[in-house]
Specification:
alpha/beta, five-stranded mixed sheet, 12 helices, 10 strands, 17% strand
């Protein structure tokens, strides 16, 4: 069996008893960083007095996943194998998702265990959660793409969650201040650790607070949804298509929504009068 095992996001006690029992029977552990994983296993063995002794650790990350899948054969999975992310739920913004797809494509048996997840902890802690929410993972770190991601984030109709590094958290909040300084934001880091930090304020006030805050640690950012009145004023594809405007103008407006090339959208509009098909 291939097991996807959630790892602690701060406190070692976040690991489940079931996860410990399964790790004891696994011969191979696939992980993002073998050094981090070996260290975690050592801590777990010491704290819970268990005997987790895999025969092999294999790394799988964004830079080697193509080679990883080229090198393995289906009989590799005839053993009990665990996949562990560096921290948190496997497959959420980590290479575990590609291993899930591989298992599905090759009819391999696998099981995903429940466990700690930073995004959900922060969402519930924010007080913004009602029913729906949107998770966007890590935003792009490139200029124009990042700007589009942030604009999309601000226009989401539901509370939205993103992960952010300590190097970019301040610039992210500053960009939001420049676009919508009154938007309510909740941020959290060091979840379940001794120095867990939770901050909630409008973008402008939060930026001032962060200037005098230790930014070290991975951040989870939760934005309150856009006000309903503002959402009603937001143009969607249907609204734009119904406007009495030239197709070229419509394609330029749609390119702002979808972040796609306006010329490509123009060609699609020429072929279809019912909207753009993706």
């Amino acid at each position: 069996m291939l097991y996807f095992i959630p790892t602690p996001i701060g406190n070692l006690s976040d690991i489940s008893f079931r996860s410990l029992e399964i790790l004891k029977i696994c011969e191979i552990i696939i992980c993002e960083d073998t050094r981090i994983c070996k260290s975690l296993i050592s801590f777990l063995n010491s704290k819970f007095n268990v005997q987790i002794k895999p025969k092999k650790f294999i790394s799988l990350h964004t830079h080697n996943e193509t080679q990883f899948f080229k090198n393995i054969t289906l009989d590799f999975f005839d053993k009990n194998i665990a996949y562990m992310s560096d921290a948190g739920m496997p497959g959420i913004s980590d290479p575990g998702s590609s291993l899930i797809k591989y298992a599905l494509n090759h009819n391999l048996s696998y099981e995903v265990l429940p466990g700690a997840n930073a995004a959900l902890v922060a969402l519930v802690s924010s007080g913004f959660c009602k029913k729906e929410f949107i998770f966007m993972g890590f935003l792009s770190n490139k200029g124009k793409e990042r700007q589009k991601d942030i604009e999309k984030l601000l226009n989401n109709p539901y509370p939205s969650i993103v992960y952010e590094s300590p190097k970019r958290i301040l610039s992210l909040i500053e960009t939001i201040v420049n676009l919508e300084e009154t938007r309510e934001i909740f941020i959290m880091k060091e979840i379940s650790k001794k120095f867990e930090t939770k901050l909630r304020a409008n973008a402008k006030d939060l930026f001032e607070i962060l200037k005098n805050t230790n930014l070290k640690g991975e951040w989870v950012v939760v934005l309150k949804e856009k006000d309903q009145e503002e959402q009603m004023n937001f143009l969607c594809e249907k609204d734009i298509l119904e406007l009495d405007l030239p197709l070229k103008t419509k394609s330029k407006l749609l390119s702002k929504i979808y972040g796609k090339n306006s010329k490509e959208l123009y060609k699609k509009l020429l072929l279809s009068q019912d909207g753009i098909k993706y």
